[in-house]
Write a structure and sequence with these properties.
This protein is 39% helix and 16% strand. It is an alpha/beta fold. The protein has a domain at 2-169 and 199-226 and 293-308: NAD(P)-binding Rossmann-like Domain (Rossmann fold, 3-Layer(aba) Sandwich), CATH 3.40.50. It starts with a strand and ends with a helix.
Length: 328
């Protein structure tokens, strides 16, 4: 079996590649000339260059492919058009390449995001896979638009959609700042009320994505891949504290107004920089929500997904990786 994987040079994509290889599946990775191949070095993957803006170049990557896992995407952009180009347009170009090649795909799996739905109402009502979407950010809206565009292709291509919530694990740069802060004895909480999140390790997520791709029960369906439990940030910080053997942790609580204000400042400054800001006004809004939780029940039912790494074990593995690789 040969899987074409996009986004393999990134955090989540590289873990997907690792899990596929562990299953004895052949992996072909789409890369750019400028791609950082750090996480693919020494691995038995096939590398092919292609441009997501060039359908013809994408067609050339599909020879002999059985399934496609499309994990590549844009998480930061200067404007909404940038998110649409990197998420929706790139995905539809890959779909068009599949159609042009007239190959009989076993699966086209698209990695979306909980951000396409927005936060949950309360602790008793986690987001369900088929409820109405209400994204709060340009990134989330671009993922929502991509999912909507894929609906019309489900009759001719076996499409599965997987939506991760917040993700952590070895190689992750996004949550590294939180681990680093705790490593130096500081924990930062947003707001003064309890917040709950669905949180998944990259190890569980990558395995869940691949299981969804390989199962016959998931064609035409959508899933959240996450934790069984909903976690609070003090609970997460406590596990990080334990992983680093810290006796004390200075906890700082930031008011919502300050977080949103800092997001606005970061967004303004980003207008004058070459690269788009990772943190902006909308991210400030996202961070101040009380519930980012989702249901994994249909993933359990349809393909037997289960969380294998507890929060404690997953954070310990991640903390150890950061230390062993000299990030800390």
């Amino acid at each position: 079996m040969l899987v074409l994987l996009t986004g393999a040079t990134g955090f989540i994509g590289s873990h997907i590649a690792d899990d596929l290889l562990s299953k004895g599946i052949n992996v072909r990775c789409i890369i750019r000339k400028s791609s950082d191949l750090t996480w693919l070095k020494g691995k038995k993957v096939e590398l092919v260059e292609a441009d997501f803006n060039d359908v013809t170049s994408l067609e050339a990557t599909l020879d002999g492919v059985d399934s496609v896992i499309h994990c590549a995407g844009v998480i930061a952009a200067k404007n909404y058009e940038g998110f649409i180009k990197g998420n929706k347009t790139a995905t539809l170009n890959l779909i068009q390449a599949v159609l042009n090649k007239k190959i009989d795909l076993k699966r086209f799996l698209y990695v979306s995001s909980l951000m396409a739905f927005g936060p949950s109402k309360d602790l008793q009502h986690p987001v369900l896979p088929y409820q109405k979407m209400n994204p709060l950010s340009a990134y989330g809206r671009s993922k929502q638009e991509t999912e909507s565009a894929l609906e019309e292709y489900k009759k001719i291509i076996p499409i599965t959609i997987v939506r991760p919530p917040a993700v952590y694990g070895p190689r992750d740069k996004a949550t590294f700042s939180i681990f680093k802060s705790v490593y130096y004895g500081i924990g930062t909480l947003i707001g003064f009320n309890e917040k709950y999140v669905s949180l998944v390790s990259s190890m569980d997520l990558s395995r869940g994505i691949n299981e969804a791709c390989l199962s016959e029960n998931t064609i035409g369906k959508s899933y959240f891949i996450s934790s069984d439990e909903f976690y609070t940030w003090p609970q997460i910080m406590a596990e990080m504290k334990k992983a680093f053997n810290k006796k004390h942790l200075l906890t700082l609580k930031l008011p919502h107004s300050l977080v949103i204000g800092l997001g606005g400042v970061s967004e303004f400054v980003g207008k004058f920089s070459k690269n788009p800001p990772v943190f902006d006004y909308e991210k400030g809004i996202v961070f101040t929500q009380d519930y980012w939780t989702c249901s994994i029940e249909n993933a359990k039912e349809d393909f037997g997904y289960e969380q294998k790494f507890s929060l404690s074990d997953g954070i310990k593995i991640t903390a150890d990786w950061y230390k062993e690789n000299k990030w800390l």
